[in-house]
Amino acid sequence: MARTARRYDIHLLLVGGQREVIHFATLEAFQQWYGEVLTASAPEAFVNVPIRDLEGEYLVVRPSAVIGIRVEPQFGSVDD
Predict the structure, then answer these.
(1) What structural domains and CATH numbers belong to the chain?
(2) Which one, of 6, 80, 9, 1, lies nearest residue 51 by Cα?
(3) What is the per-residue pLDDT for 80?
């Protein structure tokens, strides 16, 4: 029986060594955000990145500043 992730932690690796962790409830929600916002924007334009689980709070980055993305499914019931 396959386990179902309760959410996905997305680790953004930024230019300069900074890291930011954001969360999405489903992989499809992340893929939609990634496709519509991060890849569709001009490399030097600012885009909003949703922060944690806070509604209406965003980190603003340039798509060209994101040098890596790691997707980590979370299966447990306790937040770290």
Answers:
(1) 7-74 (2.30.30)
(2) 9
(3) 53
